[in-house]
């Protein structure tokens, strides 16, 4: 037995794959073994680090086929979204990096130019790949380069408008562009919308030739309905398939169509891709796959097929993390409570009902929740329509994803002073998903929107309170933002300055340490949202060095509360502390408010530098940025020492 045969027999074929070229020598039997080993590898590695498991288990054969039929990096591969590129990383020499997947010193959870010449863009926001691919294919044609562009697009991405804008342009070209539609019926949760319903018809009968027999076997075992349903499917195969198949839709656009094929049949995948490659123009390859394929716990997970679990037991699929109260859970519970009291409150999600907590409202009031697919722009303007018709929509998305709908928030919602509440989960530095997922721009970007109010709760109690205040606003939009992970202990205010009960206003005094001889205090720390606990700790440390310090939580950071301006007048130095970018952030807003009120108190702002920050844990990244209790105390004391009159500290 050869060394190579021994490796296959002992389940170590994957160890012989150093790059895509090694795949081209494999037999069909070896490819089957390799696919199984890749799935075992994914489960073993992701179970320890967490990450996007379900999507990658579903694209093993598709990715193998891409690398066997095309020649990366000469032929250029794009993944939409990039979280389904783990198999691509495994096949391009990065197996060792999976021990630290999404951790400091390890692999990014998305394609990364820094990691490999086989990666192009960190496209972790959905529905962008076809636009990238369109531009690249045009450029290669113009420059006379003999290259193909291959884009694997999850069917969830096709719920986003950019995909259809790109398809409209791609269809008008003759460029070498192959689009693989990975049709698994899901994005995070089951895919929503008319197009997904169209594909779902085909999912009943994937791969008309081979898989029809499997459908027949399955339906034949069903009493009464089985045989009639099979006859309908067989009729479709014989001649009326155009009535239910998407090829007519794509071909009407001018795109060639191949499929549907069984995306887990290696031979069928490669045959389809070779046909598409040989056409030398834009082609759709429609592959029907199963998210989580080959790993029973993922296949049986109804919520999201273990889309992006934390660390889990590889044998059972059960999560290892101890239970704790999460920000998302607090929001979900309170939203249901509010909706129980107010029939005008409805929920909107962009294909992320479970991750954002909207699923809990959907379970209690299914008729009052709308999943619009991965279409944040549509979500915002649809919410505007709901508000125009007398409802109060609560749109729950990740903070980073609302960036995509700025124009809609500005002109469709705010300009019409519509009562829409946007709830931004994963605000601030979120850690392992990297810079594209950091929710650090919302307070800066949306702070310029006239009439929009932004709240940043510091704990569970204030989240519940501020959500109720937000949905009580009836003359304009509101944003409620909070981070990911566990909620810290409640941090009660010593007292509140201004703001009537139930209104969106008032500033909470969280800590007060000493008063200077002249009655004026030294430092006012304005701690935003999740940084409230940090502000209180910094104040205690600075007080130990003789400075009088007040810590406040503005609660509603935009517009700047008038009470905050009055408090600043009583101090010698103002320091803002926020988990958003400094440029145009809360610090800038407070500084402007002080200037407008002619309050000449120096201000220093601490926040996230306007740059691209690598992935790691939230604590690691904040330490890198110098936003720790020790670092901030050193800065505050240093600044205070230059503005406080000389005295014995």
Summarize the structure in words.
The protein is an alpha/beta fold. Helices cover 39% and strands 15% of the residues. The strands form 3 sheets. Strands 7-6-8-9-11-10-16 form a 7-stranded mixed beta sheet, with helices on both faces. Strands 12-13-15-14-17-18 form a 6-stranded mixed beta sheet, with helices on both faces. α6 (129-142) runs parallel beside α7 (161-170), α9 (210-220) packs antiparallel against α10 and α14 (327-341) runs parallel beside α16 (358-364). The N and C termini lie far apart (81 Å).
Describe this protein with a few key phrases.
alpha/beta; 649 residues; elongated; 26 helices; 7-stranded mixed β-sheet; 39% helix
Task: Tell me the number of helical segments per DSSP (H or I, 4 or more residues long).
Answer: 26
Alpha-carbon Rg, integer: 27 Å
Number of strands: 18
How much is the average pLDDT?
A: 86
| Secondary structure: helix percent | 25-40%
- Roughly what fraction of the amino acids lie in strands? 15-25%
Distance between the termini: 81 Å
């Amino acid at each position: 037995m050869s060394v190579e045969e021994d490796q296959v027999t002992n389940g170590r074929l994957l160890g012989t794959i150093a790059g895509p070229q090694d795949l081209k020598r494999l037999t069909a039997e070896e490819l089957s073994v390799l696919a199984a080993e890749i799935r075992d590898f994914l489960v073993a590695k992701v179970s320890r680090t967490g990450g996007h498991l379900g999507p990658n288990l579903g694209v093993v054969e598709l990715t193998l086929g891409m690398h066997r039929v095309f020649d990366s990096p000469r032929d250029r591969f794009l993944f939409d979204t990039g979280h389904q590129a783990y198999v691509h990383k495994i096949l391009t020499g990065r197996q060792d990096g999976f021990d630290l997947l999404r951790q400091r010193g390890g692999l990014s959870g998305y394609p990364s130019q820094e990691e490999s010449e086989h990666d192009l863009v960190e496209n972790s926001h959905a529905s962008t790949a076809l636009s990238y691919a369109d531009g690249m294919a045009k450029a290669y044609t113009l420059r006379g380069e003999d290259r193909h562009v291959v884009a694997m697009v999850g069917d969830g991405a096709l719920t986003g408008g950019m995909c259809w804008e790109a398809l409209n342009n791609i269809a008008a070209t003759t460029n070498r562009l192959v689009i693989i539609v990975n049709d698994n019926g899901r994005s995070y949760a089951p895919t929503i919308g008319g197009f997904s319903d169209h594909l779902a018809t085909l999912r009943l009968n994937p791969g008309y030739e081979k898989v029809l027999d499997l459908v027949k076997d399955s339906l034949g075992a069903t009493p009464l309905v089985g045989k009639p349903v099979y006859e309908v499917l067989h009729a479709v195969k014989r001649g009326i398939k155009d009535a239910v198949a998407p090829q007519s839709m794509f071909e009407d656009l001018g795109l060639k169509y191949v499929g549907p094929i069984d995306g887990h049949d290696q031979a069928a995948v490669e045959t389809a891709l070779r046909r598409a490659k040989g056409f030398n123009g834009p082609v759709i390859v429609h592959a029907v796959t199963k998210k989580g394929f080959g790993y029973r716990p993922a296949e049986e997970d109804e919520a999201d097929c273990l889309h992006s679990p934390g660390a889990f037991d590889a044998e059972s699929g059960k999560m290892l993390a101890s239970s704790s109260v999460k920000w998302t859970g607090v929001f979900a519970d309170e939203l249901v409570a509010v909706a129980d009291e107010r029939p005008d409150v409805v929920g909107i999600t962009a294909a992320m009902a479970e991750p954002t907590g909207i699923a809990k409202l959907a379970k209690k009031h299914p008729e009052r929740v709308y999943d619009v697919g991965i279409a944040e722009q549509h979500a915002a303007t649809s919410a505007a329509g709901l508000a125009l018709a007398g409802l109060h929509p609560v749109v729950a998305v990740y903070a980073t994803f609302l960036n995509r709908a700025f124009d809609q928030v500005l002109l469709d919602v705010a300009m019409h002073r519509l009562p829409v509440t946007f709830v931004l989960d994963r605000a601030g530095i979120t850690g392992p998903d990297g810079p594209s997922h950091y929710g650090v721009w919302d307070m800066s970007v949306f702070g310029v929107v006239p009439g929009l109010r932004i709240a940043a709760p510091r704990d569970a109690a204030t989240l519940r309170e501020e959500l109720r205040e937000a949905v009580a606003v009836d003359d304009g939009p509101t944003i409620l933002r909070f981070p990911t992970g566990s909620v810290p202990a409640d941090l009660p205010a010593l007292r509140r300055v201004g703001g009537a009960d139930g209104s969106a206003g008032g500033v909470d005094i969280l800590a007060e340490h000493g008063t200077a001889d002249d009655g004026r205090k030294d430092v006012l720390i304005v701690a935003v949202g999740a940084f409230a606990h940090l502000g209180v700790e910094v104040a205690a440390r600075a007080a130990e060095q003789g400075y009088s310090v007040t810590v406040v939580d503005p609660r509603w950071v935009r517009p700047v509360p008038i009470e905050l301006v009055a408090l600043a007048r009583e101090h010698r130095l103002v320091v803002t502390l926020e988990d958003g970018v400094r440029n145009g952030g809360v610090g800038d807003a407070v500084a402007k408010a002080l200037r407008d009120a002619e309050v000449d108190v120096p201000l220093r702002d601490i926040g996230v530098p306007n740059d691209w920050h690598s992935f790691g844990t939230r604590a690691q990244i904040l330490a890198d940025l110098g936003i720790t209790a020790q670092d901030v105390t050193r800065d505050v004391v240093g600044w205070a020492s230059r503005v406080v009159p000389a005295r014995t500290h």
